[in-house]
Amino acid sequence: MREARRIALSTSRSRWTARETLLLGKMPDAEVGRRLRCSNTCVRKRRVALHIPPFQPRPEWRVWTAKEIRLLGTMRDEDLARKLHRTPVAVETKRLSAGIACFAPKRRPWTRAERRLLGRLSDAEVARRTGRGQQSVKSYRLYRGIAYPASPMRRWTAAEDRLLRTASDQENARRLGRTPAAVKTRRGCLKIPPFETKLRRWTKSDRALLGKVPDRELARRLGRTLLAVRTRRLKMRILRAPPRVRWTRAEDRLFRKLSNRELARRLDRSLMGVRSRRQRLGLRPRSR
Q1: For 52-70, how does the pLDDT look when each residue is reduced to its tens digit (9 = 90+)?
Q2: Which of these, 47, 121, 199, 271, is most buried using a 10 Å CB contact count?
């Protein structure tokens, strides 16, 4: 009737009776609004104001039949749940409430012939020959205290032990045909410190150049890393080399006579600096 006359539904409700309030949360808000002839927003606001949780429909409950109960304990709960289209938790809960023990297949005892295979063949091969699971074979082998045959231990010789002091673990592993972890473990058992490459000592002439030549240039001259040069200079409390002096006219005139490498050697400047100066002067590189 209301829809036929196109009468709008009231969006708010001034008063809620106790009987109307009891409907909140016991059915969907849309159904409550239809019964009380108010909007869903009005019903939801009232329910939220009273801290009533929304209605959640209860899942359909399937009663356990006598035939399903007889199947409990005859197979694994996961397999029975898949067969009955139930959850494994539901099957386990029903089995425990009925006092039925879980399914345990009959264990096959190990024969003497099967036990002789342990330690001589790999677990996978023993499992294939005996028709058992590989994990079952592994568990029984460990229970009997039998070592795994697929990874025989190579004993370390005295010559191999001496090599642990001469090279890094990765290099020794490559030489000896072992894994780096095995080499590291053996070195730790012998209490041998990690191998370190021999450090190049700083000579008196090398130390004299610190602070007089830029670190990058000095590293290139001495064949050392920039970090090594910088660390050594800071350790000796030597300040950085002062910035290069400006190019003089006499030095600029030499660009027309000498090549970049010859200029860098004579003027004690870097090759990159000479090239940059030549480009600023607009001069072509001079061939030897």
Answers
A1: 998 887 666 788 899 999 9
A2: 47
